[in-house]
Amino acid sequence: MKVTCLTFNPFQENTYLLHDDTKECVIVDPGCYDKQEQLELKQYIEQHGLKVVRLLNTHCHIDHVLGNKFVADTYGVELEIHETDLQTLRSVQVYAPAYGFPMYAEQLPGNNYLKEGEDVTFGNTTLQVLFTPGHAPGHVVFYNEEDKTCIGGDVLFRSSIGRTDLPGGDFDTLIKSIHTKLFTLPDDVTVYPGHGPETTIGFEKKSNPFLN
User: Fold this and answer.
1) GO molecular function terms here (predicted)?
2) pTM here?
3) I need a surface site. Which of 42, 103, 154, 183 has the fewest CB within 10 A?
4) What would the 3-class secondary structure string for 1-17 be?
5) Is residue 52 a part of any domain in this protein?
C-alpha cells in the first residue's frame, strides 16, 4: 500500500490517499476547502490513474471534513465514519462560518458505518478499524498489518497527543486508547497523523512526554 499525504487548509491538516497496485484508492480525511486545494487533490488522482472507491473519516472535526462533499460528489462515493461521531460531524455546519469557512458544504454519511472488528478493504489491501476515542467521541484509526502502517488521525502525534479540550474530548479516554490500541502494535509500525510528520510506535513509547 502506498501512502500519499497532501496538506490542506489553514489547520495544515494531512489528507491521505491510500492505493495499491490495482489503482483502487481510498481517501482519508479530505481537508481540501478551496478550489485550488480541490484541484491539487483531483490532479494527483488523475496523474496517477487512481480510482477512488471509498471515503473515510478518522473523526469529524472541521479540519478533517472540509473536502468530504467535494470527494463524494466528484467520485460518487459515500462518506464512512464511526456512528458515534455523527453529532461531531453535524455540529460543523453550525460553527464553520465562525472558523472562517462560510462555504462549507455538509456531507452526511451513508448507511455503512465504520465499526471496530470490521475491516476496510480495497484492491488487494485490508485495513483494520481500531476504535480510539478521546480526541473525538467516534475517533477511529486504520491499521495495515501487512505494511505496518497506521493512519492515525489526531490521536498520536510525533512527541505529542491529540487535544482533549474540544466538545466530546476526554484526556483519560485518549490515554487509554493510545495504550490499549496503538501501543499494542509492533514498535516498527509507522503512524501517519492528522497533522505534522509521521512517527513510529517505538519512538513514541520511548520519548513521548505525555505518555511516559
Assistant:
1) hydrolase activity; metal ion binding
2) 0.98
3) 103
4) CEEEEEEECCCCEEEEE
5) yes
